[in-house]
Amino acid sequence: MKRQVSIIGAALLLALPAISNAGELPDWLTGEWLQQRDDRWTEAVWTLPRGGTMIGVGRTGRGETLRSWEVMRIVRGADGSLSLHAAPEDGPATLFPVVEQGVRDIVFANQNHDYPQRIRYWREGRLLMAETARMDGSQAQNWTYTPAGE
Description:
The protein has one domain (23-147): Beta Barrel (Lipocalin), CATH 2.40.128. It is 13% helix and 51% strand. It is built from 1 helix and 10 strands; from the N terminus they run αββββββββββ. It has one helix at 2-21; strands spanning 31-37, 40-46, 53-62, 65-76, 82-88, 94-101, 105-109, 118-124, 127-133, 141-147.
């Protein structure tokens, strides 16, 4: 019986960070991030959380040519939930509510959007990782960002 209680207790302790972190803006995203592959580059910049909002911008290019850009916001709603608003190249923003959140990872999803339907950010040490995909994980695209200036 003691073993069963220990396992349940351990499971509850492991779940606490994910539960206690729900609704917190992901301050671990803050900074200027760069992925460089040969002459292809992708940059992302995220502000510190303030006023229930983080603002991000991203751009991709090759050499000196800008290929695409977007403006993003992570916003805490009146109910405390978080959502990502992503607007590529002056287009209308698409809303992606948070569906999972841990201490250093966050997943947003909108099954009604064409692509992406799921957006995930997480940290691996000093690296920022990002993935976009369909809800079932297909058509995944991945990025590994290092802090800019390194």
